[in-house]
Structures are given as C-alpha cells and as structure tokens.
Amino acid sequence: MPTDTDQPDLLEDADLTEFLDFQDDFRADPAFVKREKARAQEIRNSQWWKNLRATGKCHYCGRVFRPQDLTMDHIVPIARGGRSTHGNIVPACKECNAKKRYLLPSEWQEYLDHLASGSQPSQ
Ligand SMILES: [Zn+2]
After folding, report:
1. Architecture of the domain spanning 7-115
2. Phi and psi of 92, rounded to 5°?
3. How much distance in Å is there from the Cα of 11 to the middle of ligand 1?
4. What pTM, to 2 d.p., does this model score?
C-alpha cells in the first residue's frame, strides 16, 4: 500500500483559500464550508476513496498516475456550494488540479472540451 503524505491536505487547504479569494459571486456560509471540509476529511480516510485513488486515474484527463500523486478534488468547489459527496469528489492529478484552480469555470470547461476532443490544449 502506498503511504499517504501530508501534501494532499496542504493542497486541499490551498484550494479552498484560493477559491474563496476569487469566487466573489458566491459567499459560502462558513459553517457550511467547515462541515463539508470535515466530511471531505472523513471521505479521504474512507476505503471508498482509497480504492478510487488506487486506480491511479485522473478523473479529468484520464491519465494514470501513482496514487500518491492524485489529489482529492471537488467537482463543484465547497466554496461555491459543492458538497462533500461521493458524486462530487474525484481524484485529480496535480496538473489538472492546478489548472482547475486558476482557470475561470468557462475556461476550465474549455480545457475539458479539449481533452474530450483528444487534442492537447496549447500551453
Ligand atoms: Zn489530470
């Protein structure tokens, strides 16, 4: 079994902070964010998540990585009202995770469309 590192937790925290910074249109209730973050932490320790991550497959680009290189990603970020449910949590590689973080939702959709069409986004 691969051992967990502290890194994904740090990334998750960075995610949330940055989403809160630029998602001015959505004011997440701090109590909601706190609750859903706690649930995400529980899910991170669950067998469901460990099995999912063990596949090594990034939900977005479909490439296969070492499990420890995958991070937990909320499809709809908690800061925008997303819940910590199995349907909203996916494994993502660091590259996709980073892209998703700094792209606008419309730009992110464009990136996904690029992936779906099989062409590499220029960059
Ligand atoms: Zn990816």
Report:
1. Orthogonal Bundle (1.10)
2. -135, 145
3. 15
4. 0.71
